[in-house]
Amino acid sequence: MKHFQLILLFSILFILQTKAQDLKKYDKGSYINGKDTISYRILFPEHFDAKQQYPVVFFLHGSGERGHDNAKQLDHGGKLFLKDDLRQKYPAIIIFPQCSEDSFWSNVKFSTDSAGKRNFDFQKGGKPTKAMKALLGMIDNFLEKPYVNHKQVYVGGLSMGGMGTFELLKRKPKTFAAAFSICGGDNIANVDKYKNVPLWIFHGGKDDVVPPVLSTTIANQLKIIGKEVKFTLYPDDNHNSWDSAFAEPTLIPWLFSHQK
């Protein structure tokens, strides 16, 4: 029995070490422009050639991955873009920026009602948060690179990053060819600003952190005005619906199928 336990322990350690080594394929970078500072991890295609142009995907993490370690933002989604078949079929540049602990991607105000339920008050317009302002500068800076295919620039995110995806689309609606938001939300009044960007929205039906209605209202509004939107509700998922979304075999093909 002890022999079996040791084998199991070493197997787990080997898997964890292998995963950590894989994530090291994401290079570290940072954008600094005056007071605007943001760190990021970047994955270049295999056999990267700076003379060619590649699609770019910006991925926005959730609130639990905020910080200054330039590592935690890879916890959810980092391994998705490391799959060999996807890297071979869709060579692209993948960027994971990291939001600082004292900021938030989206321009939203929080409150708690008498029952302890958290409410989200998404703003219409207004100045970007500190993190979003730095992110906007970083994106503009990166898109100046000669190896970027401007017809294939994408954004996606989960939870706070799903909210940040809508926020980014609102502020740069002409930049992105398509986007996906997982367990996020936005003010329905902002939909008109990014109505022409193809969207795939995901949410868990039992999400007790970010209410599913925050996604359904956006999806329904886009459908009402006749714009391209896919909406997937996982009835039994709680907040971690990103696990189900990442397992969707058509997510990445759908994303890269869109060009401006």
Care to describe what's here?
Residues 51-245 form the Phospholipase/carboxylesterase/thioesterase domain. This is Putative peptidase. One of its GO terms (molecular function) is hydrolase activity. Keywords: Signal. Residues 1-20 form the signal peptide. The protein has 260 residues and is of the alpha/beta class. The protein has a single domain (27-256), classed as Rossmann fold (3-Layer(aba) Sandwich), CATH 3.40.50. Helix content is 29%, strand content 25%. It is built from seven helices and ten strands. It has helices spanning 2-23, 84-89, 130-142, 160-171, 213-224, 242-246, 251-256, and strands at 27-33, 36-43, 54-60, 93-98, 108-112, 118-122, 148-158, 178-182, 199-204, 229-234. The strands form two sheets. It has an eight-stranded mixed sheet with strand order 1-2-4-3-7-8-9-10. A hairpin with a 5-residue loop joins β5 and β6. It is globular. The model is unreliable at 4-19 (pLDDT under 50).
Annotation keywords:
eight-stranded mixed β-sheet, two-stranded antiparallel sheet, 7 helices, alpha/beta, Rossmann fold, 260 residues, Putative peptidase
What's the layout of helices and strands?
Layout: H1 2-23, E1 27-33, E2 36-43, E3 54-60, H2 84-89, E4 93-98, E5 108-112, E6 118-122, H3 130-142, E7 148-158, H4 160-171, E8 178-182, E9 199-204, H5 213-224, E10 229-234, H6 242-246, H7 251-256
Parallel strand pairs: 3-4, 3-7, 7-8, 8-9, 9-10
Antiparallel strand pairs: 1-2, 2-4, 5-6
Strand arrangement, major sheet: 1-2-4-3-7-8-9-10
CATH topology type: Rossmann fold
End-to-end Cα distance: 59 Å
Largest sheet: 8 strands, mixed
List the uncertain runs: 4-19
Give the number of helices: 7
Share of β-strand residues? 25-35%
Keywords: Signal
GO molecular function: hydrolase activity
Protein name: Putative peptidase
